[in-house]
Amino acid sequence: MTTGRSYPAVVAVFVTTLVVSNIVAVKLVSLFGLTLPAAILLFPIAYICGDVLTEVYGYAAARRAIWIGFGSNLLAVVAISLAGRLPSSPFWTAGVYASAEDAQRAYQAILGFAPRLLASSFVAYVVGEFLNAYVLARLKVATQGRRLWLRTIGSTLVGQAADSAIFLTLAFVGILPPPALAMAVLSQWLVKSAYEAIATPLTYIVVNSLKRIEGLDPFDRATDFNPLRLG
């Protein structure tokens, strides 16, 4: 696994966008007539970081970052959940609420993670990110390092399709009628994929700058793509 001096910074951005996205996702927003989680503004950046990690440092380095992100998000979820279970001080009103009970209810409403949603999110993240990294690495070898736009957009289409379908299906099957669920999956997939397509010029700038700084441009010709292999 080849990494350079900028690798920790890219991983830090990757992990931060992931953790913050899962926190703000509780808010639903209306964009272009579609109802979407507020994380739609930030979460695709995690996929862009995943593209950068795979393209500049190789699949093995991206694999390590994906598991670091998984562990960091799990730690954040556990910490927030434990904090919610601790007894509230009678003086805690957060400067806004009439009583500590009201403040606690607000905390739970915003940061109280539903187990089903959490499980759906974690499964979708792992499958989507690894598919994204795998497809990009394979396309890089197939295209001999040319057409970066094809690799980033193509891998995103696959990864985001899996992420959106798995999360929404596991989280809302039996709650939303099938036509509404299918429309939600399609909407999220299209919006997230369009986001990365629009960001392609930025991805080019970051990838080319990092390749120049790091002196790296690995090709995963003999890589073990087992997602559980961390060595």
Question: What does the model show?
Answer:
It is built from eight helices and two strands; from the N terminus they run H-E-E-H-H-H-H-H-H-H. A two-stranded antiparallel ribbon has the order 1-2. A hairpin with a 2-residue loop joins strand 1 and strand 2. The mean pLDDT is 88. It is globular. By secondary structure, it is mainly alpha-helical. It has one domain (7-214): Arp2/3 complex 21 kDa subunit ARPC3 (Orthogonal Bundle). The longest helix is centred in the middle third of the chain and has 28 residues, at 115-142.
Strands, helices and their partners?
Blueprint: H1 7-24, E1 28-31, E2 34-37, H2 43-57, H3 59-85, H4 100-111, H5 115-142, H6 148-172, H7 178-198, H8 200-214
Antiparallel strand pairs: 1-2
Question: Which tags fit this structure?
Answer:
231 residues, globular, 8 helices, two-stranded antiparallel ribbon, Arp2/3 complex 21 kDa subunit ARPC3, mainly alpha, 2 strands
